[in-house]
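Figure S4 source data
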Amino acid sequence: MNNSPKRAAKRKPSFLRRLAKGLYIVLFILSLLVVAGYAALNIFAPAPTVNSQVTIAPNPNASVSAPPAVSADPAASSGPAPLVLNRREGVYTCLLLGVADIGGSDTMMLGVFDTKAKTASLVSIPRDTVVTGSNGKYHKINTMYASGGAEAAVEAVHNLLGVPVDYYVSVNLKAFESIVNQIGGVWFDVPVDMNYDDPLQDLHIHISAGYQKLNGKDAVGVMRCRNCYYNADIGRTATQRAFLVALVKQTITPSNVTNVTSLINTFSQYVRTDMELGDMVWFATQAIGMDLDKALATDSLAGEWISPYWELDDEAVLELVNSLGIYQEEVPAGALHIVHP
């Protein structure tokens, strides 16, 4: 008789144990793919190349004297020499245009992204800001888009603020309606009661103040309503910046992974830009992990309403431009082309 102890029968792992092991392997493989994909994007999508220097025709009417300018042509003797400013490495700019079907740019914002410091700025440019057109006459800056397209708007902002505009993104306001509906609405604190009707534009806005989930139609209403504020467009630009931040934060969430295809279709249908796909990918990789609550600063060009224009405050705008950190040196007043009719 064999008295040796019997070897215990080998038990098969339970279904839950096998499932957990399988999920672990899948997550491990996905993690490797994410890391590899991120590395590949950084390798195959290099940093965009922009000119390291910006040449600016000085404003002869600048109220504050500028330091001696560096002339691109030492032999030139007629008129003030152009200003040459050196850009900080890793800092890029983009002009965001919100466009309605009627043709003008309803919204204009300058975005600045410091990819090294991982910070960004978003500056609203009031639509009634007065600028000088190519014909030498005064115009509201929002009319630049209607007369010459995005390129004319870019040139106007460059001349006004003395900053380079590396890219533009023109977004039809219908895109906001589509995106908001695709992600199931956006939670937003509407600052004031909004009641406005414009039959000519088929624009009807009736939204109560308070924190609520907005559908696409109401979101566009919140973005467009300017008569709802005592300070008109200035109040609206603050709301627009706040809503854009809320929209971005609520769009880039894991729950919207299934909406990627439809969001891309919306982008291709309603958005026009001169930014190459490779540059978009690179900027996306640089933005990974940014905390918008801390890393994003928002502001607007200060000034006052002197009918029929928004006239800028020279010193306040100059201070704001310098705070953006686009250049290595301080921007002189002569680089800005602020006008006062």
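Figure S5 source data
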Amino acid sequence: MTYATRADLETRFGTDEALDLAGLQAGRIDVALADAAAEVDAALAAAYRLPLQGGPWPRLVGIACDLARRALYDDAASAEVSARADEARAALARLAAGSDALLDAAGRPAARLQRAAHAGPAPAMTPDNLAGL
């Protein structure tokens, strides 16, 4: 799923910066955005059914833009660019853990996956039961 577009990146960071980062390599911005979307999906897959329904998801647009921007800088990213990407990854972790809510543009939360609770007898083989074997 695509969370951000080239236009989103240019709106947030300026057309000049986006063009400078892409250089003469056609499609470099699209690749960075696709890689950012894959990172978002990987972080959220255990907590949400993907692709997300509804939307748009403004928080994910910002996160994807920060991740793509960092990728476009290669190894020469400024401290601010790196810090924003680090915060984007931390935000993804909070969203996946459920400590932050993932809201669509209308303020509706994304439905989290329901996990089955463990039920049944206690395990018969425990470290205490196996001691001395």
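Helices lie at 6-13, 15-22, 28-44, 58-72, 79-97, 127-130. The chain has one domain: 6-108.
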